[in-house]
Amino acid sequence: MTEMPAPPVAKQVPAERSVHGDTVVDEYSWLIDRDDPDTVAYLEAENTYTQTATAHTKALQDEIFDEIKSRTLETDLSVPARHHGWWYYTRTLEGSQYPIHCRSRTEPALPADPAEPIVSPADEQVLLDQNELAGESPYFALGTFDVSPDGRLLAYSTDFDGGEKYTLRFKDLETGSTLPDEVPGTYYGSAWAADGSALFYTTVDDAMRPYRVWRHLLGTEAAADVIVHEETDERFFAGVGLTRSEQYVVIELGSQITSETWVLPATDPQGEFRVVQPREQGVEYSLDHTGDSFFIVHNKDAVDFELVVAPADAPGRENWRPVLPHTPGVRVTGVDAFAGHLVVSMRRDGRTELHVLPLADDGLVGPGRDIEFAEPVRTVRPGSNPEFDTTVFRLGYASLSTPSSVYDYDVVTRELTLRKRQPVLGGVDLSAYESVREWATASDGTRIPISLVKRRDTPRDGTAPCVLYGYGAYEASMDPWFSIARLSLLDRGYVFAIAHVRGGGELGRRWYEDGKLLHKRNTFTDFIACGEYLVEAGWTSRDRLAGRGGSAGGLLIGAVANLAVDTFATLVGEVPFVDALTTILDPSMPLTVVEWEEWGNPVESAEVYAYMKSYSPYENVEARPYPAILATAGLNDPRVGYHEPAKWVARLRATAIGDRPVLLKTEMGAGHGGPSGRYDAWRDEAFTLAFIIDTTNPANLA
């Protein structure tokens, strides 16, 4: 047996931080300097060590990768979406990392047998082949992909390093030629003028905050582009888009708890934007347009939001009329407006729902109805619906045991038609899996929902290993989703569970508010309570329980590592926000000023400082045994800096006792989302699953 090399030891360069009379020493702050040769050398040394430390799982990694690949229909076609006489869709080809974007005048037919190769229609037009654009680059991401309303032009943007700053280009779809217009340094979001003469886009400031909205006139130099809005409040992000009606360009400005919207007729791209309702601290709203009206979802005196309507030419609050009045516990999350109906997205009893409201010719709203589904634990949300004048609403559906599905709902006949279900190849019998909803009880008596999936033949006697996933921030809900890769765990006897902890939005706005600011510790203790419940209820045992989360969910994992002494055997933090206090103290960094409404402002408040310090994972590493830990990072990550997991692992390595592995895996050419190509992503997931299996149920390695 090959002897394991000693793990890397990061040098210690003590640096003092004094805030609110509290002085701490950070011996690894030097790792924030990515231009320091010692930083890169340390990251590369950790990668080498991780590769060596997991070499014995290589056969299992390859096996899981082959399982994912063999169960995935590699040559596939998305369900085409109709828009102005064209059918738009994407294709994937076996052996290719990225999708190909296409359109056709004739609706492409799906094969009767999903195992059959896709035969492209004769009149197919390839709009963009991401594989050609990516070339030999190890990383590639498409930002904007936006066809002009008249179908003549395509605006698209590309990123080759994961830094999320994109170069914007334009393609003439009639000739296939790329136009000379080129705009570097753009961000997400775009909106076309009605005649395709101009495109609106956004750029970021030094803290990666999208703060400017620009207008580019086709055929002009980028240097001539005009700023149409600059957001000076550092708490606010700026975004831009086009209503489905294609009548209005919309600038959306939002902090964590406040928003403001400006609109401009798309037929007047060089006109002046006007505000819908001036911002008011703590009030959020969003809108869509149909006919002569804006339909607005807002939370003014409505904790869980309500739907109102206002005339498009006078949309201020004084003219808001209720459509769906506020109902406590029913969280209205958005509205999609069409020529003859509305579809309202909402959350009720921890589930996602879609509610359809017909519109009369005079613009009045008729009685509504829910779109009904049989599975109680599932996720339903709007799908691709670019067509405005239609009676068919496309939606996406999935559960932990039902693959991602595309349905069309006829709002007149109320008929729900399955258009496509994600194929799962390799003879997988999906009826062999079952999903259920359980509830844990937190220390303060709050009931926390847990969604679980397992094979029906997996015993509930404490012997099954389990992976518990969590997030719990920004009111983002971790609704049940299907995963082909997850089958490789389930078929090895694992249970997979999602802890719907406070800080997310699963049970409405109050659920979010009870897991942020000075209530943030609820997120972590809820997760621990869910883990302890799974053990007590016989779903798993402590020595076979793994916790997993990413980004803000990685903060959750890091906090749990310090708080739960022996609940978990393994913890996986993906691009984890584990040095939260240091970051939130530095206004020049991403995830700082705009985040103060989520975490609090420790610069101004000694109370917030002390509270964040009490849970920030990096601040609380102690000399005690820790679970097996895998942390991942992206060198070009603009959201959670690579230095956070690097510092965390360095301090764990120097402080923790025991012999459980502590590993760091850094993508040296990628960002927040990890590897960009699908095969690379599958290999990355296979690596993580093999680590979990190795540290929770090593008998499965064979």
TrEMBL record:
Keywords: Hydrolase, Protease, Serine protease. SUPFAM superfamilies: alpha/beta-Hydrolases (SSF53474), Peptidase/esterase 'gauge' domain (SSF50993). Residues 7-421 form the Peptidase S9A N-terminal domain. It comes from the Bacteria. GO terms for biological process: proteolysis. Pfam families: Peptidase_S9 (PF00326), Peptidase_S9_N (PF02897). Residues 481-696 form the Peptidase S9 prolyl oligopeptidase catalytic domain. The keyword rRNA-binding does not apply. GO terms for molecular function: serine-type endopeptidase activity. Belongs to the peptidase S9A family. This is S9 family peptidase. It comes from Jiangella aurantiaca.
